[in-house]
Amino acid sequence: MTSATEIRRSGISVVGDRPWGTHFCNFYESRKDLLDMLLSYFKAGLEDNEFCVWVVSDPLSPREAWDGLREAVPQFDHYLSKRSIEVFDGQDWYLKGGTFDSNRVMTSWNEKLDRALDRGYAGLRGTGNTAWLQKKDWKAFSEYEQLVNDSVAGRSTILLCTYSLNSCGANELLDVVATHQFATARRRGDWELIETPELKQAKTEIKKMNDELESRVLQRTKELEAANQRLSQAQVELAHINRVTTMGELAASIAHEIKQPISAASINAGTCLQCLQRDVPDLLEASEAATRVVQAVTRAGDVISEISSFFKKGVLRRELLDVNELVREMIVLLRSEAIRYSISIRTELAENVPRVLADRVQLQQVFMNLMLNGFDAMKESDRRGELTIKSEVCDRQLLISVRDTGLGLPPDQAEHVFDAFFTTKGNGTGMGLPISRSIIESHGGRLWATGNGGPGATFHFTLPAETALAQAPSSR
Ligand SMILES: Nc1ncnc2c1ncn2[C@@H]1O[C@H](COP(=O)(O)OP(=O)(O)OP(=O)(O)O)[C@@H](O)[C@H]1O
Ligand SMILES: [Mg+2]
To answer: CA 82, CA 85: separation in Å to the nearest integer?
Structure first.
């Protein structure tokens, strides 16, 4: 089905292209003008897959219509054999049974449209002439035209009504103009378009509304872009702050937990020393104090291993994840950051990658760290920045790599980048990579870095693939 708002070629130059639902009239002076106009009107309709109905009245005859069409329309036989056009005599069409019945004529047009659509045409193009019209029928016909004008909107129909200018009095002329969307007339040798005030008004209003809408859309787009940029900036900052606060909190709790056993150990070690330094060393008390030192130190050791095992196992919320999807999400998230530094992001994602059982937020953090590190390394470089994220399947493992064209790893320090607090950045924490590595290892994978043998660095990590569950729907 075609849309009822679709624009069609009228085939008449002064009329131009018009949407379905157009109902207009033409005042002609000469037979030739009328014939020329209608032939070019139907030529456009036939060429554009419209079903055509030509209701002919004086001064033309059906015979002239057929002959004219054959001459004016290339390959007319093709349309003829498809029966794409029908020509009716005005008397038969409008005055069946001897009287004019507006409902009956309306029904005929509607039936033609239904059949046209059934037969696969885009819609209906029709014309009628009023030469048969007698004075007594004028009022009824005028009402019929109004009815057509009111009902044509939204239908895949174009209707052109032709009136002889010479036989129209001023009153009739006004009636006709009022019951059509617009009129065409030959004046001083040129075709002119006369629009009704309503149409003009409506058009101005539509234009005004369109302009307004357009500027509002532009404004909104700008606002959205700005908001997006702020959002991704905020995300980047948040990732950083998150790491810093996690470390701050961690440091505070480690300090609190370890301070106590250490001060206990220190006091007891002092006691132990005093006992041994006496003239007569009190070995019993000294060994009791030494035992308490051992206990306190063991306690401190326990606290440390408790903390690091918490880090390793963590309280993870694991789910089956499609890593490719995660990569795409991260790219969206960091897009405006990339645009800001003219960095292009490419992906080489293997198809049908098995899912991994992983903590979404933690994996996002790993991607965020690696991608931002890549951005940082490229911001400093004069080369055009390109970040490539690749996924592939290797030995039942998922292998992900993030490759940049930046400064490259510090020479001979490739492994140091994973050391806690190692950073070459003024505002870096040096914890991005060690945290990422501990996340990947807690998922049963490995994370390492290699030089590119050219500009830039590549970070790789593996994740065990949940092959057996590869087809299971995400539990998200
Ligand atoms: N893609 C890379 N190219 C070159 N050097 C890198 C790259 N990634 C990391 N490095 C080096 O490793 C160091 C440590 O990185 P890490 O992510 O641990 O901390 P950071 O990026 O310095 O700080 P933060 O992550 O808190 O912003 C960086 O300062 C940088 O010197
Ligand atoms: Mg970093």
So the answer is: 8
